[in-house]
Amino acid sequence: MRSVVPDYLTDVLGDVESDTSGEPAGYIPELAAADPERLAAVFATVDGTLHGAGDVDAAFTIQSISKPFVYAMALSDRGFDRVLAQVGVEPSGEAFNEISLESETGRPRNPMINAGAITTHSLAGAENLTPVERVDRVVQGLSAFAGRQLTVDETVCASEMENAHRNLAIAHMLRSHGILTEDPRAVVDGYIRQCSVLVTARDLAMMAATLANRGMNPLSNEQVVDGSVVRQVLSVMATCGMYDAAGDWATQVGIPAKSGVAGGLIGALPGQLGIATFSPRLDRHGNSVRGVSLFERFSSDMGLHVM
Ligand code: DON
Fold first, then answer.
1. End-to-end C-alpha distance for the chain, whole angstroms
2. Cα of 246 to ligand 1 centre, how many Å?
3. Distance 60 CA to ligand 1 centre (A)
4. 64 C-alpha to center of ligand 1: Å?
5. Are 255 and 58 in contact (CB under 8 A)?
6. 69 and 55 share a domain?
7. Shared domain check, 208 and 120
8. Complex ipTM value
9. Does the keyword Magnesium apply (predicted)?
10. C-alpha 160 – ligand 1 centre gap (Å)
11. Where does residue 7 fall: left (phi above 0), alpha (psi -120 to 50 degrees), or beta otherwise?
12. Given the CA of residue 160, which atom of ligand 1 is nearest to it?
């Protein structure tokens, strides 16, 4: 029997296609050159069934969508107490690239903003890894979530590294508070390599489905992280994943989610499915304009609001 899901997805993509508002990320020159018309949506159920429409195999960089997965790795590799001592779990209400450190402790407010994600990058893997080994741990971990070997886009990585003044400033602040204990430049370099991992909408849907499936990849059956780690990650995605648009998102969409400045967006519905969309034009919060519209449609059409 023919599934109706791809027809539904094609229809919804057609409805948002005419919206050309927003701009691709301008502060990373290679991203500014992205084709703004790309558009995709993929559903991956927890039993491993994929439904997609549009540019489902177009490759783009994961950017901030890496943050919840690397937070999961840090929690698994170092334990909750160690990670929570260095990164909080409160929404910052500020843009993703604000400093947003707690005044008394110097802890970044949460792991979804850059300050928190630079810190969690440094907490992935064992304590004494070299920067190269740490990046390898991160790329292998992201690959396990996706269920296939992922690689770094060296051109996007170099382009962001040349323009990384803001992230370097944040990392130096973190080092001055003793939250980072390593060379700030090496940590930012590793964090930017993490953001430059190439994915497709299909990969992102599988990664989100692995979260929805309590940490087990539905196709490889690998238990990538424990269920307790996933609960922590989804909670932080629900409260902080959409940055200073988190409240609008919670009320209008109501799905734990994470966006990236290359135009990707994921949502994970525990026990049900992972959703990924891709469209490079961004709103003022750094979230994909058409991605947000697609999720609003999915949530209202299928009653996916979980809160
Ligand atoms: O740190 C940065 O600026 C980027 N590599 C990632 C930012 C990002 O994706 C923000 N999310 N929408």
1. 33
2. 16
3. 13
4. 5
5. no
6. no
7. no
8. 0.98
9. no
10. 10
11. alpha
12. 5
Give the CATH number for residue 267: 3.40.710.10
Q: What is the pLDDT of residue 1?
A: 44
224 occurs within a structural domain: yes
Q: What is the block-wise mean pLDDT of the chain (307 residues), using blocks of 10 residues?
A: 76 97 91 93 97 97 98 98 97 92 92 98 97 98 98 96 96 96 97 98 98 98 98 97 93 97 98 98 96 98 93
Atom 11, ligand 1: which residue's CA is nearest? 260
Q: Give yes or no: residues 69 and 48 share one domain.
A: no
Residue to mutate (ligand 1; options 94, 97, 242, 258; most atoms within 8 A of CB): 97
What pLDDT is attached to residue 120? Answer: 98
Same domain, 173 and 191: yes
Our count of domains for the chain comes to 2
Q: Work out which ligand 1 atom sits closest to the CA atom of 287.
A: 12
Range of the domain at 35: 5-62+198-302
Q: What is the pLDDT at residue 161?
A: 95
Give the number of the atom of ligand 1 that is nearest the alpha carbon of residue 285. 12
- The tokens describing 148, both together, are 């296939």
pLDDT in tens, 1-18: 456 777 999 999 999 999
- Is 97 annotated in a binding site? The answer is no
Ramachandran bin of 175, using left for φ above 0, alpha for ψ from -120 to 50, beta for the remaining angles: alpha
**Which residues' Cβ are closer than 6 Å to ligand 1?**
63-64, 96-97, 114, 160, 167, 192, 195, 259-261, 286
114 is known to lie in a ligand binding site: yes
Largest CA distance in the chain: 61
Q: Among 213, 206, 210, 230, which residue's Cα sits nearest to residue 270? A: 213
Cβ atoms 131, 189 nearer than 8 A: yes
What single string gives the DSSP state of each residue in 73-122? Answer: HHHHHH-HHHHHHHS--S---S-TTS--B-TTT--BS-SSSHHHHHHHHH
